[in-house]
TrEMBL record:
Taxonomic source organism: uncultured bacterial symbiont of Discodermia dissoluta
Protein name: Putative integrase/recombinase
Domain Core-binding (CB) as annotated: residue spans: 107-193
Keywords: DNA recombination, DNA-binding
A Pfam family assignment: Phage_integrase
PROSITE patterns: CB, TYR_RECOMBINASE
Gene3D superfamilies reported in the protein's UniProt record: 1.10.150.130, Intergrase catalytic core
Amino acid sequence: MLIDLFPRAHARFLALPLLGPLLDQLARWQADRGFNEIQIRGRLRKAPVLEALLLERGLNDLGQVPKSCLLELTARKSQDDLYLSALVHSLADFLEDRGMLAVTAPTRGERLADAYREHLGQVRGLATSTQTEYRRVALKLLDFLGFDHDPAVLTTLDGPQLDKFVRSLAKGCGLSKLQNRASFLRSFLRFLAGRGEIVAGLDQSFDSPRVPRRACLPRALPWESVLAFLAGISRDAARGRRDYAMFLLIATYGLRSSEIAALLLDDISWRSAQFRVQRPKVLAPITLPLTDEAGAALADYLRHARPQSTHRAVFLTLRQPTRPLSTRGIQSVFSRRIAAGDLSIEGKVGPHILRHSLALHLLRQHTSVKVIGDLLGHRSVASTGGYLRVYEEHLRMAALDLPTGSGGQA
């Protein structure tokens, strides 16, 4: 296949000492996974550059290189060299698939962080992307303490150490993000206390950064702007049909991006005009009625735009190789749609703003906070209050008052 891709230059690629013997197999492996010739050719053209990087770092035997080390050869920002980064990822996956990469045993810290991540998924029902963020903070703490070298450091962990660690997290980090990280840290400390690794109560032994109340209020669009955003998505092409169906579901039902990404073909019952949404946070799925508008948009996408695939996910990427659209992918699509549309929104926003907008829209229609919370998949009314607290002037219209806390109304 390499000869077909590079009729005149294939000998030059085959002559590469490290990668040359693998390139033909790598090309076929990529083709089997749906990459087209342009994509494969673009990647393999970067093989001499990658070979030079490998030799420069003294990586003369790919069988002795762990995958993590190989992935470090990607450009600092993937946009700096798309094809080089793509080649590195393809090569790493190819070698891993063939069992040709060195397997490194996880460290003590990684094993503990993995147990924590499993707890977050199975017990707390957090989305995979959220688990990753929590795990990252856990690993930072374990590295900060030198846990891999001395696991006993957990037995002497105290508040001053945690204060110092939180200050280290603050570098290059805004107040709101630092507050999130502090929350992740408290969660990990409670997990460790539950396992008997540390004394109980350390999760309350350090101060969280204080963020002004109005600095992190949920943002929402006027409902007219939501409708204008949806109407502005052209459905003449496959991409528009897919995007319109996705964002209509979010705006109609208040779905999370993770719930859109997890939606399967088997979750849709056309006969009963219903669909099932997996809601890990409440440890139970919810069945929602499929409105005529949402059903028509889904049917239009599935019949005329969704690529043929063995994947059961409803929403797929349109570029080859076809795969389920991830949460991050949905967020990227939304950002591009906002940038290309007529809406003027300050700052960085994601599809969650449609969820906030629906909550406000329903509140203004005198829908009770309890019903709104059930639709959004909240465990408690207090969670819904967090979404709606910016609109306190509307709360008197709701059928259920929000709970109060130490700082007044939520």
